[in-house]
């Protein structure tokens, strides 16, 4: 028997957990429609295939994202290794950037089969996968994608070399009043022996008053990790405070001697507490990081926790004209693999946004990765510093942009993923988080934006008008606070880290649109809008009709409101119907929250809107006039704001 070409495994071929519904199974394997019997499995790595059946692994978790390995890794080829009982034909395929399929090679396999595939054709995109046809009853004992060589040294931006690094990681999971989720996350880390074996340390900053330690399962999970587990109780410093604590401890504190950092893990993995993780993603991220040409951040993609066959986020960038985060080019929002597997190339003449999988074969380049799952090399953390003290929002984006400035890129890697609640089920653009969205966007723009500030100001002005027309007065009020705090400069960021949220919540309590009631049924029946059929309120409008309603809505908004509609709403609107062209014609309406658990009563107040608008315009003008000066201030303070010494004072090191 010839010597094996498979040196280090990069990713295991996985099977769904038993009992998963069909749509979730499509993330792992696809069974041919002509199969007379289904394949079966009792664990997550071995598969029994009846004679004559065909299985394709052209799936999200089991195809190999070749273009990413081609772009970022040291490898020139990859090895598919399949260990079988029985006899089966294994066929290897690859895709081009447009999703078209190319046959690579294939052969009958009994026992162990290995196939080495070049990564040369994948400059811009493409996956590699295999299909298997069972000639006899066959069992795949194991299968996976392997590197033909061990990882070599990595080149730093200054040209010096470091590594290669061990396959070891410190995992950090900050938590805030999600004790059940936090315990589940610990259990997920412990459930797979191969994942458990690479974990040096688990760090859990607990910032809430509902503690994981009080939950069933916590003791067993923490005892499993033993002296590898560290919990840190601290005040609510938000996501940035939680993640900064993880980095701070993983690096051993200010002087490097704190016990949680004793293992000196070469990698630090950030994970949210409210996720479900495919544990093999940790191994995959670790291997992608170890085999990278130079140290880089490896990000996991986001699947939709409530629609688990949906890929919610493929990759993100910051738009430099308005400095707003957005999906990277060619990204498709909330892609459903159950309806559109990787093989779905669509139809000739499809529009660019058509629901097919063509663009999923492109390599997507990003500016940063969300901290729901991000692997950060220790050498990067040591060089570029801690997260900014922003509480939540934009801390991950700023860190990714900062890393890029230092020569350390980020890749959001297909097949490395977690499940997380979709953004569409949150009101974070209008609730208390709107303050942090705007304040932190301005802070990061001061640090990163180049060129005129006009695009940022215009987008803020547009958002203000939209919020006022939609009677979202609390949102405008706290966005005005956001501009005030940005204008106050960087010196107070640590001082207000823990106090901003209570202050913002106190402001919101004075506005009816921020007070959530259990149900609209507790209010009188809607009266309707004069001259408008009740069924038309909130309906979809064609572009021409929208223009007409914009004029009518503006005219209505400039008039004095009728206070009787503050007692009896004119409409009960679902979030999808609560749009500017519907709300601009009303003086009072309930709007259901994004999670469907309650409603808010929005009440038009012309004088309040006028006052908020005047303040907003004044502050936006001040931001525009002082932006260059503030850029100097924030950039001068950046090193201190991201230092371990400054964070050590917050953590009482």
From TrEMBL:
Q: Which Pfam families match?
A: GlfT2_domain3, Glft2_N, Glyco_tranf_2_3
Which top-rank group of organisms is this from? Answer: Bacteria
Kindly tell me the pathway this chain contributes to: Cell wall biogenesis; cell wall polysaccharide biosynthesis
- Outline the extent of the Galactofuranosyltransferase GlfT2 N-terminal domain: 10-148
Q: Where is the Galactofuranosyltransferase-2 C-terminal domain?
A: 456-652
What is the E.C. number?
2.4.1.288
Q: Name one GO molecular function term.
A: glycosyltransferase activity
Keyword annotations for this protein? Coiled coil, Glycosyltransferase, Transferase
Alphabetical list of InterPro entries matching this protein: GlfT2_C, GlfT2_N, Nucleotide-diphossugar_trans
**Glycosyltransferase is among the record's keywords:** yes
Q: Which residues form a coiled coil?
A: 602-633
Protein family:
Belongs to the glycosyltransferase 2 family.
The molecule here is called Galactofuranosyl transferase GlfT2
